[in-house]
Structures are given as C-alpha cells and as structure tokens.
C-alpha cells in the first residue's frame, strides 16, 4: 500500500511546518467537544459553570489531551531537536565569554589547518584543472651522472622531445611545454608576463574547447619555424580586450615576434602550472625558431618540460623503462654529434616519470618538504585547539553538574541530556568552522603569497576541496570536543552532586582536564622551540655575509628581443643606460654587470701561468664591471684597488679576483700583480682582491669570482646594478621609465629589486620561520587560555575552601601562592614534556636549519622563560580573584 | 454501574465502525459509542482525539470542517476507501478472535 506512508508523511510534515495551524485546529476541535459535553450536563440540570468543569474532567484535561495528541503526531523527535537547539542557543548566549573563547579557538585551529591544507593540496595534490584522466599523465624528468655527480632535471631540448616521442611506444600522447616570463607589448607598454610555450599536442591533454576561435594545430607547430599564432588566456582576454569577440586576428607582440591571436582558452584553464596568470600560449616552434635557427637540430638548449600520457593498461614502471630506453637512444644520437659526451655506460641516463605537480617531482628539494612540516605543525595546532575546547566544555559540564543532576532528577532522559550536550557542541563547532573558513582564507592567501614571492595567484584561494576539508575537520573536532563532557560530565553519583552542591570540603580535580592542559602545554612548547629554531636559522640566513648589499639595489636586465647590434653598439647602449641611470636624482650609483647571484652565471675559459688546468679549480664566475661597481653593489675590496676609470681600452688589462679565487689559484701567495689570461693570450694583471660573494646557494661555501672592466672586454655587459637612496620598490618605476626611453626599437629593460632575487633563495627558511612562528604563537595563546580556564575553574570551585582558609587567618599572599603553585605545576609538567618532544624531534628538524643546532640552549631557555611568564600571567587573574574572596559571602553562598 | 475498560486496540475498530454509518464529529462519536453500548463502554475522551488523528494520519478517515447540528463549526470525520477496507479487515480479525476466545473459554 502506497497511500499510508505517503499520507503519514504529509500529515507529519504539516504538523511540523504548519504547527500553529494544526494547534489552532486541535484547539477548536476540543473546544467544540467541551461545549457539547457541557451542554449535555446543562440539559441534565447542572449549572453552566459546574457543567463546564465536569466536561473538562470527562475529557481528562485539555492540555494533557493536547500533549497526548502532539506525542502521537510524531513531532516529538523533531520538536526535541528544535528545542535542544533553542536551548543550546539560549545557554550559550548566557555565557558569551565561554562561547566566544570556544568559537575563536576552534576557528583558529580549524582555519589554520584548512588554509594550510588548501595550499598543500594546490601545490602538491590537485591535478591541473580540466586535465583528462590525470592519473595517466606524468611529467618527465631525466637523471644522469655528470663528472661524478648525479643530476636530475626536467629541462629538455626540443630535439630530445622529438626523439622521446618517436622512440617510445608506451605513451599515447606527448607534449612539450615551457612556462616562462616573456616580453608582451612594445615600448613603455612592454612588460614581462607569463607566457606559455606549448606544442599543439599540449591542448589535447585537457578536456576543453576554446572559449573563442581555435587552438593551433600540429601543422602550425613545425620546426624549424612554427606559425606566429597565439591563444589568449581567458583572464587576459577579459582584462586587456574586454572580452571582445573581434580580438581574433588582432596582433600581439610577444618576445621577438608579433603573433596573430587565433583563439581564447576556456575560463579556468591554466595549463599544468598553477602559478601566476598566463597571458597566452604560443607554439614551441614559433618561439624556438625566432630564438635560435637550429633549435630543433641540436641538443644544446634545454628549456622544455615534457608531459606524457601512458597508453591504457601501461604501468608506470613499464612506461619509465620504455622512456629510459628512448632516452638512451637519444643520448647516443647526441653523442654522435658531440663525441666529448660521456658514453651511456658512464652517464647511465634514465627517464623518471613523476606526477604533474612540480613539488612532487624528484628534484623538489626543501621546497617540497617544507609544506609537510607545516602541515604536521598545523595538525598539532589543531590538536591543541581541540584539547582547549574539550577542556572548556569539560569545565562547563562540571560547573553544570548540579543543573544536570537536577534535570535528571526531574526525569530528563540521559539520552536527551547527551543530545543536548551534543547540540551545543555541534552549534559551537559549526560557528567555529565558519570562523575557520575565514581564517583559512587569510592563511592560504598569506602562504601562497610567501610561496609565489609576491606574484598574484590565479584562481580561488579557498576552493571547494578546502571547504570540504574544513567541514570534515569541523565535524571531527566538533564530535571529539562535545564527546568530552558527555563522557566525563555525566559520570559519577548525580544524587551526591545534587546534595553536595559546591559545598564540599575538598574540590575535585578533573584528571581529564589536567591531562588536556598538559598536552596543550607540551605541544605548544615543542612548537615554540621549533619556531625559535627556525627564526634563529632564518636570522642566520639573513645575517650570512653575501658580499653585496641587497636592500637598496635594483637589477636591470636589458633584452634586445632579437635585435642584432654590433658589440660596439651594445657597449655604447650599456654606457648610455649607465649614464641615464646615474643621472636620476634618487640614484646613488649605477654599474654594468653580466651576472646576477642565484640567477645567471657567466664564465669564460681562463688560464693562469704557473697553474695547471686552472679550469679544474673552478667554476670561476665572470663579472663585467664599470667603474664604481664595488661601491654600488657593496662588495668590499680587501687588498689593492677596485676597477676604476683608468681601466680604459688601451690601458693594461686589469682584473680583480675574489679572496676565494685567489686562495684556489695561488694558495699562500700574494695575488696582487699575478697574471690571469681571460679569453686570450694577453695577461690581465690582478689589481685588487675583493671579498667573497655568495652566488649559487645560501651556504658558507664561497664561490670564486673575478671582475674585469667592461671597457676592456671584447663583449658587452648584459645589465646594470642601480643603487637607489630610498626604498628600491619606490624607485623602480622611475628607473624603468627613464631607461626604457633610451631603448631602441622593440628592445626593453626589466627592473627587479635585488631583494626579490635573493629573497627567493632564502624562501624555504623564511616560510619555515613564518609558519612556525605564527602557529607557535597561536598554540601559545591557546595553551595560555587552557591554563587560565583550568585555574580559574579550580578557583571558582574552591571558593568555599578559600573562604574557610581566609576565615581561619590565611593571608592574601598565601592564597595567591596556592593558586599560582597549581598553575605553575601544570605549566611546568607541560613544559618538561614539550622540551623532551622538541629534543627528540630535533633530529628531523636539523637538516632544515641553517647554522643552527636543533638543540640550541638559547632557544630552549627563551621558550622556558616565555612559557613560565605566560603561565604566571594566565594564573594572575584567578589568583587575584581568589585573594579577593570574602569569607562572609563564600561561606553563606549555596 | 460497572464500566468496561476497552481492550488494547479496540478503540480504532469502534471509531471506524461508528463512522461507517455516517460522517460524525468527535463528540458525536463518543456519545454514539456510549449510547450504543448502553453506557457500559466508557470511551476515554482523552484518548479519543489522539486516536482520531492517528487514523486520519494513516489515511483511513478524513476530516472536513462543517456546520454541526446546533449550527457550530465542527470537525467531521468520514471513512475513506482505505478506511472501509481496514474496517472489514479488523472486523474479520475481531470475529476470529472472539470466536477463538469463546471456544477456549467454553472448554470443559
């Protein structure tokens, strides 16, 4: 029978939704009944009033009948839930301090964790948007031995890409792709923007259709020169072309070519790299052909990432083996062209297939590890927050023991009581989760900003997956924390609780709460130690003498964009730029250069009379300098003199070497006056020795470099260092505009703060320091709240006892000491555990630190001090309250 | 006069039976049951209405508001088709039960 359940449902829904109407009807029906019943008695001779009373008695009480009816209506369960909710809201509003503390604590814990999850998910787990079946797609890496070192990279030559595609049989699709920053536009409008260079096959890795026009085809992407066509990204189309449909066919200057726009990629398509917003995609062969005529013939320009899609049913291992075979064959092909290349047996070239996310690749390094550390820390913070909330809820449940006992005595079912506690917990968790979502957004934005180094990041910061994660942990934490009072709060003899009230001779410590506070204290101590280590380590990184001054320096790169100028013309251009920059009011000095630390390195063959094969002592980094270089950059001259204006063409060739270079070439001798032959038979005489500079990576291992005057070199410099008086960021636009105005044709300059380049090298330490500090501080605050709430609760419970003590003559100091001792004991035990955890965990932390022992006593002492101070602070208020207890009131209460 | 307590579950049957003759409001049902049983059955008025509403929910009876015999606004209940079938089923069951119970009680 279908009718019955349906009819049942309709009635029940009506009973809940149209509750008032149903109640009114019931009321009218019963009134009618009473009237008729009374009429009957009146007819039998009773006076009206008595008849009415009799009728009510016959019915058995109007309210009772109504209640029975309601019960039968089946609204009881839902009603109870709604009632619980109302009750919960009401009781929570009665204690705004508690409610706020719980919501904020939950919000911070959940938010920090969810935000960090979002970032890690984005960097490491989320497949590229729109990619078809990402599980079958891999990014290709290669590994080989080179001069005794094992190298791994994913920068392939175009020729290599063709080889791998041709000689492998296990993959159904291959694509080469290179994200990069290229010049877009011309003149003052020229700016460097992310542009993707991709083979035509790249687009078919994704399930998508162009928003407008078309993607380019394989016939437009052929070596030696692909068609100059471009597919715009959706955001760029919107922001620069207002989403106009007639954009098709218009032209856009990118790098060295002028490209025709043939299509717009769909909204949300970002390629494989979820970084800054890409402007457009252009054929690999269009870009490559304009850059280097022979780019498809040789193996000398590695710049492409390779993506492959395995054929159905092919395992990762089989595809790896297949591509390794193809790579070895390609290695042989390269060796046939370049016999100096090591044989396959020695180099052992191999292909590696890795997930598309770069941070999960084989060469992710510290950048790949830091997110996991941060995630672990976030989880610890979440536990601290959860423990804190559980503690607060527990305290509340204890405080409400009498109320609960009373309600049990009045016949409230235990199930209903647990239900109410859960409703309260759930309500708090949901509110905390919502606050957490906001905090997740802040956390994720901040973290992405740290990672992207200030570049704006594409797409939503907090996506559906993050929200889902947030909801999930809200559920878990909500359940766990509301379980605590349900588990601990309803135990024990309720009748005793009711009888005793708070008028007990002794107070009861809650073992569960004590344990929670100790856990919190321990975890936040451990976090703070880690934070301290990271901060010191970052300070060491920052304090490392780099040999140059980063803060006020701008790096200017000149890009001729394929224009061919004679060396002399280039040199004149560089001199002109140097003069223009120097003339600017905010500029202290400008100098030419040809290499930038962490960014680009130059080296030409040198030979040194009296030193066998000086090359083997290298690498030696070449810097071309104009007069004033050392002053401008801030590299000190240790002996002799700097390059100056006397080092002009025709004068004796001069060279300045770094202390490290001098040490390697002429150990124990005075380098001044020695001869170095740079790129030719003529001696350059060492006129000065400069301090060491850090070039390749942040470490104490000094790089060797040498400096020759640009005026005497047979090549032109490549850029400038400009030292400004104010903040480099403020002067950047001025410098760029002035310099761009003297650039010929389509050529342009790029101006970057030096600090940005160096900052990127320090990034992993900075992220560690920032995240650990933020989370450590958060944990500290939470632990302080935890200690405070336990102590405050204990004081409240002991008011009676304290009253007696005071009445018996205890002095205020005694009472305060009583409270303080309690708090310090709690804090001390947590602290001890925390230090122990930190000492053990130090083993894993050590490799992430720079110049910093994982067991640094200074850090540990500082944390002990901070925690002791915070504990005292957390106890101060309850102690003061205890000291103010008036025995008259305390003993009469209750 | 001694009054009989209603056995469990028989109130529904009595209501359905009373309504099988004509649509009636709650008070009339209780009066009718009292009169017909010669006042031996005391239908507890307090449980009459929950029972009526239960039957209504199950779709065996349906309610309409209309003028009563003394021209007041009253809620009238009538049997639905499902209710009529239910009445038949319950009558059958009742007959079987009473027959069986009498047989057992008449055993010697």
In percent terms, what proportion of residues of chain B is strand?
5-15%
DSSP summary: helix tally of chain A: 27
Helix content of chain B: 55-70%
CATH superfamily of chain B: Winged helix-like DNA-binding domain superfamily/Winged helix DNA-binding domain
Q: How many domains make up the 3D coordinates of chain B?
A: 1
Identify low-pLDDT runs of chain A: 502-507
CATH fold descriptor of chain B = Arc Repressor Mutant, subunit A
Q: Output the radius of gyration of chain A.
A: 38 Å
The overall number of domains of chain A is: 4
Principal-axis shape of chain B equals globular
Q: What is the CATH-assigned architecture of chain B?
A: Orthogonal Bundle
Order of helices and strands of chain B: HEHHEEH
Query: Average pLDDT across residues of chain A?
Result: 83
Shape of chain A: globular
Q: Output the radius of gyration of chain B.
A: 15 Å
Terminal-residue CA separation of chain A: 61 Å
Biggest β-sheet of chain A: count, sense, barrel? 11 strands, mixed
Beta fraction of chain A: 5-15%
Report on this structure.
The complex is a heterodimer of chains A (894) and B (108). Helix content of chain A is 53%, strand content 15%. Chain A has 894 residues and is of the alpha+beta class. In chain A, the strands form three sheets. In chain A, strands 1, 2, 3, 4, 5, 6, 7, 8, 9, 10 and 11 form an eleven-stranded mixed sheet that branches. In chain A, strands 14, 15, 16, 17, 18, 19 and 20 form a seven-stranded mixed sheet that branches. In chain A, strands 13-21-12-22 form a four-stranded antiparallel sheet. The two termini of chain A are 61 Å apart. Chain B is built from four helices and three strands, in the order H-E-H-H-E-E-H. By secondary structure, chain B is α+β, with helices and mostly antiparallel strands. A three-stranded antiparallel sheet of chain B has the order 1-3-2. The mean pLDDT of chain B is 83. Chain B has helices at residues 10-21, 26-36, 45-58, 81-105; strands at residues 24-25, 61-67, 73-79. Chain B has a single domain, classed as Arc Repressor Mutant, subunit A (Orthogonal Bundle). The termini of chain B are far apart. Classes of the chains: A alpha+beta (894), B alpha+beta (108). The interface between A and B is medium-sized, with 31 and 24 residues.
């Amino acid at each position: 029978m279908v009718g019955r359940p349906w009819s049942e449902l309709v009635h029940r829904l009506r009973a809940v939704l149209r509750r008032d109407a149903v109640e009114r009807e019931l009321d009218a029906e019963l009134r009618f009944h009473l009237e008729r019943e009374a009429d009957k008695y009146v007819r039998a001779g009773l006076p009206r009033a008595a008849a009415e009373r009799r009728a009510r008695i016959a019915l058995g009480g109007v309210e009772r009948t109504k209640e029975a009816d309601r019960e039968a209506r089946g609204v009881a369960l839902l009603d109870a839930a709604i009632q619980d909710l109302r009750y919960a809201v009401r009781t929570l509003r009665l204690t705004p301090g508690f409610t706020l503390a719980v919501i904020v604590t939950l919000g911070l814990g959940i938010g920090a964790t969810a935000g960090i999850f979002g970032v890690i998910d984005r960097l490491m787990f989320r497949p590229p948007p729109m990619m078809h079946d990402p599980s079958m797609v891999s990014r290709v890496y290669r590994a080989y031995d080179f001069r005794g070192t094992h190298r791994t990279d994913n920068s392939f030559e175009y020729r290599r890409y063709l080889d791998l595609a041709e000689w492998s049989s296990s993959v159904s699709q291959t694509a080469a792709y290179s994200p990069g920053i290229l010049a877009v536009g011309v003149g003052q409008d020229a700016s460097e923007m992310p542009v993707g260079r991709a083979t035509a096959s790249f687009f078919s890795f994704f399930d998508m259709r162009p928003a407008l026009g078309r993607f380019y085809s394989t016939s437009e992407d052929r070596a030696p020169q692909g068609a100059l066509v471009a597919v715009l990204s959706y955001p760029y189309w919107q922001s620069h072309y207002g989403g106009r449909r007639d954009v098709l066919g218009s032209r856009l200057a990118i790098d060295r070519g002028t490209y025709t726009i043939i299509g717009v990629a769909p909204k949300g398509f970002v390629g494989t790299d979820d970084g800054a917003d890409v402007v457009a995609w252009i054929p690999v062969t269009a870009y490559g052909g304009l850059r280097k005529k022979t780019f498809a013939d040789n193996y000398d320009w590695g710049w492409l990432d390779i993506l492959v899609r395995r054929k159905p049913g092919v395992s990762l291992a089989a595809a790896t083996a297949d591509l390794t075979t193809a790579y070895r064959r390609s290695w042989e092909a390269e060796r046939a062209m370049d016999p100096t290349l090591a044989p396959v047996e020695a180099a052992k070239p191999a292909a590696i297939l890795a997930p598309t996310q770069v941070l999960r690749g084989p060469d992710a390094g510290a950048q790949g590890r830091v997110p996991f550390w941060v995630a672990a820390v976030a989880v610890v913070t979440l536990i601290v927050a959860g423990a804190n909330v559980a503690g607060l809820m527990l305290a509340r449940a204890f405080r409400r023991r009498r109320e609960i006992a009373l309600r049990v005595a009045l016949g409230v079912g235990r199930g209903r009581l647990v239900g109410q506690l859960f409703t309260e917990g759930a309500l708090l968790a949901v509110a905390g989760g919502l606050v957490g979502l906001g905090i997740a957004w802040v956390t994720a934005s901040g973290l992405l900003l740290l990672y992207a180094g200030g570049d704006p990041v594409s797409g939503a910061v907090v996506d559906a997956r993050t929200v889902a994660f947030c909801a999930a942990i809200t559920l878990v934490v909500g359940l766990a924390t509301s379980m605590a009072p349900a588990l601990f709060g309803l135990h024990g003899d309720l009748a005793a609780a009711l009888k005793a009230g708070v008028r007990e001779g002794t107070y009861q410590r809650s073992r569960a709460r004590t344990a929670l506070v100790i856990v919190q204290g321990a975890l936040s101590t451990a976090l703070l130690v880690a934070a301290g280590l990271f901060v010191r380590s970052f300070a060491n990184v920052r304090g490392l003498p780099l040999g140059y001054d980063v803060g006020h320096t701008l790096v200017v790169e000149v890009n001729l964009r394929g224009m061919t100028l004679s060396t002399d013309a280039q040199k004149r251009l560089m001199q002109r730029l140097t003069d223009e920059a120097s003339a600017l009011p905010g500029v202290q000095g400008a100098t030419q250069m040809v290499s930038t630390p962490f960014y680009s390195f130059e080296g030409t063959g040198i030979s040194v009379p009296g030193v066998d094969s000086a090359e083997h002592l290298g690498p030696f980094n070449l810097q071309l300098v104009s007069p004033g270089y050392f002053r401008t950059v801030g590299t000190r001259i240790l002996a002799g003199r700097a390059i100056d204006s006397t080092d002009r063409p025709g004068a004796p060739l001069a060279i300045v070497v770094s202390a490290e270079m001098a040490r390697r070439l002429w150990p124990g001798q005075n380098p001044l006056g020695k001869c170095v032959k740079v790129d030719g038979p003529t001696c350059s005489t060492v006129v000065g020795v400069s301090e060491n500079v850090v070039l390749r990576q942040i470490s104490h291992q000094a790089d060797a470099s040498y400096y020759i005057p640009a005026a005497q070199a047979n090549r032109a410099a490549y850029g400038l260092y400009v030292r400004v008086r104010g903040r480099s960021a403020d002067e950047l636009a001025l410098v760029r505009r002035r310099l761009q105005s003297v650039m010929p044709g389509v050529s342009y300059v790029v101006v970057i703060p030096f600090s940005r380049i160096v900052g990127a090298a320090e990034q992993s330490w900075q992220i560690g320091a920032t995240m650990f500090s933020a989370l450590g501080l958060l944990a500290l605050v939470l632990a302080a709240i935890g200690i405070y709430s336990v102590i405050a609760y204990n004081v409240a419970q002991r008011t009676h006892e304290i009253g007696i003590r005071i009445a018996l003559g205890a002095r205020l100091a005694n009472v305060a000491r009583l409270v303080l001792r309690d708090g310090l004991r709690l804090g001390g035990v947590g602290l001890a555990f925390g230090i122990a955890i930190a000492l053990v965990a130090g083993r894993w932390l050590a490799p992430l630190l720079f110049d910093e022992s994982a067991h640094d006593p200074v850090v540990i002492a500082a944390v002990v001090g901070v925690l002791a101070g915070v504990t005292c602070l957390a106890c101060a208020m309850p102690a003061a309250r205890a000291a103010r207890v008036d025995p008259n009131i305390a003993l009469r209460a209750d | 006069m001694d009054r009989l307590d209603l056995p469990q579950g028989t109130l529904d049957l009595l209501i359905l039976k009373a309504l099988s003759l004509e649509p009636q409001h709650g008070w009339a049902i209780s009066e009718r049951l009292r009169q017909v049983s010669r006042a031996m059955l005391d239908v507890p008025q307090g449980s009459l209405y929950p029972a009526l509403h239960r039957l209504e929910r199950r779709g065996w009876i349906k309610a309409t508001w209309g003028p009563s015999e003394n021209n007041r606004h009253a809620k009238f209940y009538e049997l639905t088709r499902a209710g009529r079938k239910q009445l038949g089923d319950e009558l059958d069951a009742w007959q079987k039960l009473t027959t069986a119970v009498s047989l057992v009680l008449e055993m010697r």
